[in-house]
Specification:
Order of helices and strands: EEEHHHHEHEHHEEE
Distance between the termini: 69 Å
Strand order of the largest sheet: 1-2-3
Oligomer: single chain
């Protein structure tokens, strides 16, 4: 059994792109996998095309060998996009190995640990609490869900951006503020005073943080001149 074809599908689930991968073998089996979605997702198909050259003609049951081979093609760690592509191919290889052995994948990974497992539903309406409550009720009544995964971020990022731009927030996260100020100050600079060159000359000018706001993945520290808010 040898790998002889790869197919890549770019699809979408609501507002999230999905990159689905299929590896086919010369004896008619197909293994399926999915790339983790974090963007830019359109970069994944050409990356998968590159990685496939190392899988073509290989025995898909040699999962660990092939995954290590893919990782070793990068001079440095492959990063988020590289690992997303490799993880999808890893899914495909395990799927093929299990189908070739005529057993579920979990049998190749040591067997089942539990007979039953509780699942949750993802509800991404925050911070709209009434909408979240209504969705909880609908999912519980229709599907029996009693556990839910939430996110503090709105799906419509423009709505939160508009709210933040209309009225600056002084402090959102004390931990984030402390981390940001610690990273900015030098060993010789007091915690509450920051120095920068003045645009009008070479004299040092004190600065201070006035506004903290969130992006999806980090805190952004906005600073203004001392006394000017």
């Amino acid at each position: 059994m040898k790998i002889d074809r790869m197919r890549v599908f770019m699809t979408r689930d609501k507002d999230r792109p999905r990159v689905i991968v299929a590896l086919d073998t010369d004896d008619g089996l197909t293994g399926w996998g999915e790339c983790y979605n974090h963007g830019p997702d359109k970069a994944l198909p050409p990356l998968l095309d590159y990685l496939y050259e190392f899988l073509s003609g290989q025995d898909p049951t040699r999962v660990d060998y092939l995954v290590n081979l893919l990782i070793q093609q990068s001079r440095f760690p492959p990063g988020a996009l590289g690992l997303a592509a490799i993880s999808a191919l890893d899914h495909c290889l395990w799927d093929l190995a299990a189908k070739a052995a005529n057993v579920p994948v979990y049998k190749l990974l040591g067997g089942e640990v539990r007979d039953r497992i509780k699942v949750y539903a993802g509800v991404y309406t925050a911070p709209d609490a009434p909408a979240a409550r209504d969705e909880f009720d609908r999912l519980k009544e229709g599907w029996g869900f009693t556990a839910f995964k939430l996110s503090p971020w709105r799906i419509d990022m423009h709505s939160i951006a508009g709210a933040m731009s209309s009225k600056p927030r002084r402090i959102i996260s004390a931990r984030c503020a402390k981390r940001s100020m610690t990273n900015m100050r030098s060993p010789s600079t007091p915690m509450r005073r920051f120095s920068s060159r003045s645009p009008q000359g070479n004299s040092a000018m004190p600065w201070r943080p006035t506004t903290l706001c969130f992006s999806r993945s980090r805190c952004v520290l906005k600073i203004s001149r001392l006394g000017a808010i």
